[in-house]
Design goal:
InterPro entries: DIOX_N, IPNS-like_FE2OG_OXY, IPNS-like_sf, Oxoglu/Fe-dep_dioxygenase_dom, Plant_2OG-oxidoreductases. Keywords: Iron, Metal-binding, Oxidoreductase. This is Fe2OG dioxygenase domain-containing protein. It holds the Pfam family DIOX_N. Belongs to the iron/ascorbate-dependent oxidoreductase family. With 349 residues, this protein is an alpha+beta fold. Helices cover 28% and strands 20% of the residues. It contains 9 helices and 14 strands. The strands form 3 sheets. The protein has an 8-stranded mixed sheet with strand order 1-2-10-7-12-5-4-3. It has a 4-stranded antiparallel sheet with strand order 6-11-8-9, with no helix packed on it. Strand 8 and strand 9 form a beta hairpin. The longest helix has 26 residues.
């Protein structure tokens, strides 16, 4: 399978769609007899007003902190509004994302990655045998720390792409500061405890996703089911639904809110640092026959080689440690992800 997968991954899904090609066998994720035509219900993802967490009265802040904790204990994610990023800038970012993927194939391929490489334009590295391929193309870029950037993958076209991404990176650092402190306060912990665990050089990667139309959405997924190996992930969606979260063995579709940022916990933040109090949701992306979908995900991960474990205050006599300290968990997570498995068990006590 690996050699055939490599051949497919050396091409772009968008190119196959333009050529009118049907999804090959390696893209089929479930048997036709198991296909479900019934739509998934919309997920009642809680909406959190970040402005109430930082500038309003103590009573308003306490109420919003309670909502935040409830959201992360139940869904493992929330829709953030009033986050300080102008809606016109979010629209601009969506626009340059669509513009990039609408460029001629030969121009996009100037930023192409190798089949087994992670950063750059293309598909994810080939998974292990027995795992299906995702119906998507993406551009993955390290944006912070700046000295870890590989700018040969940063597009010069659209003209404003680099400037917009630089600005968005600064805004994401502001948002992670507010969110990390608020999550700590929601658990009645010292407000900087999570920021300290992430470290001054906490990594950020921006992933620009393009999910082309697919003639077989019943058996082909845009992104396979998994939980993130990050601290947490910040997602800017477009108007096309497709992201789904697994809750009580049922898939729920995440609503699209024009000016909201979906903030979804990863294994390191929710499970390891909070000793299992928060949830790390399994999610996937479904395809559709009529509309292509784009999204921008920013992965926020503790700095390299930093030891991560439950923070002070979440381990006590009534709740002993469930997780031990680990380093570079995201590397192990990726190895298990390529096998279609979760890695969280390696951090269990």
């Amino acid at each position: 399978m690996a050699s055939l997968a490599n051949v497919l991954l050396s091409r772009r899904v968008q190119e196959m769609v333009i050529n009118g090609e049907e999804p090959g066998s390696l893209y089929i994720c479930r048997h036709e007899k198991q296909a479900q035509s019934a739509p998934s219900p919309l997920a009642p993802i809680p909406i959190i007003d970040l402005n109430l967490l930082s500038t309003k009265t103590e009573e308003e802040e306490e109420e919003e902190l309670h909502k935040l904790k409830s959201a992360l204990c139940s869904w493992g994610c929330f829709q953030a509004i009033n986050h300080g990023i102008p809606s016109c800038f979010l629209d601009q970012l969506r626009h340059v994302t669509r513009e990039f993927f609408q460029l001629p194939m030969e121009e996009k391929n100037m930023y192409c990655k190798g089949v087994e490489e992670v950063e750059g334009y293309g598909g994810d590295p080939s998974p292990e045998e027995g795992q299906f391929l995702d119906w998507q193309d993406r551009l993955l870029l390290t944006v912070y720390p700046q000295d870890l950037r590989d700018t040969k993958f940063w597009p010069h076209n659209p003209i404003s792409f680099r400037e917009d991404l630089e600005s968005y990176t600064c805004k994401m650092r502001m948002v992670t500061g507010i969110v990390s402190k608020s999550m700590a306060k929601s658990l009645q912990l010292e407000e900087n405890c999570f920021l300290d665990r992430f470290g001054e050089r906490a990594a950020m990667q921006a992933r620009f996703n393009y999910y082309p139309c697919c003639q077989r959405p019943d058996i082909v997924l845009g992104l396979k089911p998994h939980a993130d190996g990050t601290g947490y992930t910040i997602i800017l969606q477009d108007e096309v639904e497709g992201l789904q979260i697994l809750q009580n063995q049922q898939w729920f579709t995440v609503p699209t809110l024009p000016n909201a940022l979906l903030i979804r916990m990863g294994d390191q933040m929710e499970q390891i640092m909070t000793n299992g109090i928060f949830k790390s949701p399994v999610h996937r992306v479904v395809t559709n026959t009529e509309k292509a979908r784009t999204s921008i995900a920013v992965f926020y991960t503790p700095e390299k080689h930093k030891e991560i474990g439950p923070v002070d205050g979440v381990v006590h006599e009534e709740r002993p440690a469930i997780f031990k300290k680990v380093k570079d968990y995201e590397i192990t997570h990726w190895e298990y992800y390529q096998r279609g498995m979760r890695a969280l068990h390696i951090a269990h006590v």
